[in-house]
Amino acid sequence: LLSVCRSCLVKYLEENNTCPTCRIVIHQSHPLQYIGHDRTMQDIVYKLVPGLQEAEMKKQREFYHKLGMEVPGDVKGETCSTKQHLDSHRNGEMKTDENSNKETSEEKQEEDNDYHRSDEQVSICLECNSSKLRGLKRKWIRCSAQATVLHLKKFIAKKLNLSSFNELDILCNEEILGKDHTLKFVVVTRWRFKKAPLLLHYRPKMDLL
């Protein structure tokens, strides 16, 4: 697997169907559907370039505000917290450094325990299309758009008491999904003009010779 700048890669794949580095064919007709987000590399870039992540988040907020849409994430809570902080200063309620540090520590702990609830969410319906597996009792779920197909495989395997999540295939529109595809990517590339929830099917893994 190779890591490439996403915007550069998308522009390149508009006219090509091969990897820009090794020239291996990604897909004959739909190469854009077979690229994934390298989060490890993204984290490294953010650490190497000071202020890049903050700048991108600022641009994202400006983009959504310009369209009159709510920014994905817990923006309301952030705005409310900022407003309370300003109000306390206006009313002359100056807090000591000790109390301020304590509140900051508590807020950070709450953020760490967020479990991606503040992420953009995706509604999913998981249907079984094989007589060899049973259906889920609760097939309707809602989770982070950053979750991957691999996360869904592990979830289904745990619910069905399977020995390994590698025994499963997950499909959308009768097409097997790659384990590294995020749900956001699946929605944009395969469910863009359809109504929620995103309908996915699971079945025992088939070995294609």
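(ticket continues) Second input and output from the same batch:
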Amino acid sequence: MDVKKEMDLRFDREIALKAALRLLNEVGIDKLTMRALGNAINVQAPSLYYYFPSKQALLDAMADAIVQPAMDVIAADSELNTVVLEVGRRFRNALLQYRDGAKVFAGSYAVTPGVLKLSDTLLAAFLKSGFDETAATHSTFNLLYYVLGFVLEEQAFAQRYGDAVSENSQMQVRREFRDLMAKGYPAIDRSLEAILNIDFDKRFDFGLATHLNGFKAMLNEV
């Protein structure tokens, strides 16, 4: 392939990728098809397979594009505490920028520069802190799984109820819980106000701190 053709291919691929991300926000992952993407950029669906051999290849490219902002300006020599908190928060924020962002990333197992950089940054921090390769790997994946699972729930809540802090959302959730309380769930009844105080930022940071404390405890045992 000559240089000009390669540059044209990369340029057209970037146009298709940006359009796919816009379409994701408009219709969600379930309705994001190669045909819908082709219609959005006035290209026949079969032509898209020249850039993305399958829908999974498209999703992998989208996952890589979504995660790229999470890796900005994280110093390679940062301490474990800083890396865990920064990567965790930035990864979550990156996923939240797109409708179904967590669904795009979850289960993709994309081997792409952005995804690899995310894992490599965490692994390096754990190894530098004294974890062996196995413990560093388990810790890295568990942290990424936590963020993904949290955002999956967070985005599912938004699709079902809307903005978590809105009065209407709070009232709807309260009604559903109040109806269930009559059936006898004493622990939930006791904790109901805490459950209904839906602040995803605080809940996420609590979980992140819990993971970090666990990592530190493990390190003391190494």
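Agent notes: Residues 133-161 form the longest helix (29 residues). Residues 74-164+199-221 form a domain with the Tetracycline Repressor; domain 2 fold (CATH 1.10.357.10). Closing as not reproducible unless the customer responds.
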